[in-house]
Every structure is written in C-alpha cells, then in structure tokens.
C-alpha cells in the first residue's frame, strides 16, 4: 500500500503482515528518485520494523524516525489505508 506525504506527491510503499491485529512483519519500499530523499527513505525503511513489529496496528503512529520528519506521515497514511482494507472498509 502506498502512503503519500508532503506537497510534492512524495510516497513510500508499506507492507505489513497482521495476525489478530498485531504487526508480525513490516516492509517499507522507498519511492524517491532524488538521492537525498532516497537516502532518508532508506534509513526510515531500515528503522521501521524494530518500531512496529509486535505492536497492535491500532497503537502504531510514527513521528520522527531516523532523521525523517515527513516520511512517517506517509507511513501513517499507508497504515490507515491498510487498517481500512483489513476491516473491509476500503
């Protein structure tokens, strides 16, 4: 699921595996083409699993992660879409 953030159409891909609403795996795919943004998204992607695996999806909302202040908004956007899809409200 893609999550969007910012004013320039920035996005990241987010894939989570759920078991009884608990995140058992998380994968973030950077979409940036600019080298600086891509580096930030890669650092964010590397940090996310340790922050969300083992937590209830309803309790996860990321803020600043690995020097990223905007990318977490994309993650949160994707997570909301995933929750809606999982509950059948897509």
Describe this structure in words.
- The protein has helices at about 35-50, 70-85; strands at about 1-5, 10-20, 20-30.
- The chain has about 90 residues and is of the alpha+beta class.
- It has one domain.
- A 3-stranded antiparallel β-sheet has the order 1-2-3.
- It is globular and about 40 Å long.
- The chain starts with a strand and ends with a helix.
- The relative contact order is 0.24.
- The model has no long low-confidence stretch (mean pLDDT about 90).
State the main characteristics.
90 residues; alpha+beta; 3-stranded antiparallel β-sheet; 2 helices; 3 strands; 26% strand; globular
**Residues in β-strands, percent:** 25-35%
Tell me the major beta sheet.
3 strands, antiparallel
- Give the low-pLDDT segments: none
Q: Compute the number of helices.
A: 2
User: Structural class, judged by helices and strands?
Assistant: alpha+beta
Number of strands: 3
Instruction: Please tell me the overall pLDDT.
Output: 92
Instruction: From the alpha carbons, calculate the radius of gyration and give it in angstroms.
Output: 12 Å
Q: What is the helix fraction of residues, given as a range?
A: 25-40%
């Amino acid at each position: 699921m893609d999550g969007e953030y910012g004013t320039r159409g920035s996005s990241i891909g987010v894939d989570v595996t759920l078991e009884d609403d608990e995140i058992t795996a998380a994968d973030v795919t950077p979409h940036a083409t600019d080298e600086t943004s891509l580096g930030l998204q890669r650092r964010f992607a590397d940090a996310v699993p340790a922050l969300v695996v083992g937590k209830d999806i309803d309790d996860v909302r990321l803020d600043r992660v690995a020097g990223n202040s905007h990318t977490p908004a994309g993650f949160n956007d994707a997570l909301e879409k995933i929750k809606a899809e999982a509950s059948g409200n897509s």
